[in-house]
C-alpha cells in the first residue's frame, strides 16, 4: 500500500483571490512583511497497490483527470510505502 501526498497549486500566471484575501488578513494581524500568498490544496490518497510503479501511474492519472485542473493548476506528489490506512478503514 502507498500513501500519495498530493500538492495542487495555481499556475503562476493565474490570479489567486483566496491568496490575496489571506495576505490581507495576515497584514491586518500585523504580519506586514508578508509579500505574497498563494493558496492551494493538499490531499492524501492511500492506494492499495503492491507495485510502486503502478501506484505512481494511478496517482498521476488521478491528478490529471480529477485532483487538479491542468489548465490553471500544477501538481506534484510524493509516494510513500505504508502499512495501512489510518484508523484501519480501507
Order of helices and strands: EHEHE
Residue-averaged pLDDT: 95
Amount of helix: 25-40%
- How many strands? 3
Second-tier CATH architecture: 2-Layer Sandwich
Largest sheet: 3 strands, antiparallel
Structural class: alpha+beta
Total DSSP helices: 2
Number of domains: 1
Strand order of the largest sheet: 2-1-3
**Cα distance, first to last residue?**
11 Å
Beta-strand percentage? 25-35%
CATH topology: Mth169, Chain: A
Within CATH, the superfamily carries the name Phosphoribosylformylglycinamidine synthase subunit PurS
Outline the low-pLDDT stretches.
none
Short summary:
The chain is α+β, with helices and mostly antiparallel strands and 90 residues long. It contains two helices and three strands; from the N terminus they run βαβαβ. The chain has a single domain, classed as Phosphoribosylformylglycinamidine synthase subunit PurS (Mth169, Chain: A, 2-Layer Sandwich), CATH 3.30.1280.10.
Question: What are the main properties of this structure?
Answer:
single chain, about 90 residues, alpha+beta, about 30% helix
What does this structure look like?
The chain has a single domain, classed as Phosphoribosylformylglycinamidine synthase subunit PurS (Mth169, Chain: A, 2-Layer Sandwich). Helix content is 31%, strand content 29%. The protein has helices at 17-28, 52-67, and strands at 2-10, 40-47, 73-81. The chain has a three-stranded antiparallel beta sheet, covered by helices on one side. The longest helix is centred in the middle third of the chain and has 16 residues, at 52-67. The radius of gyration is 17 Å and the shape is elongated. It starts with a strand and ends in a 9-residue tail after the last strand.
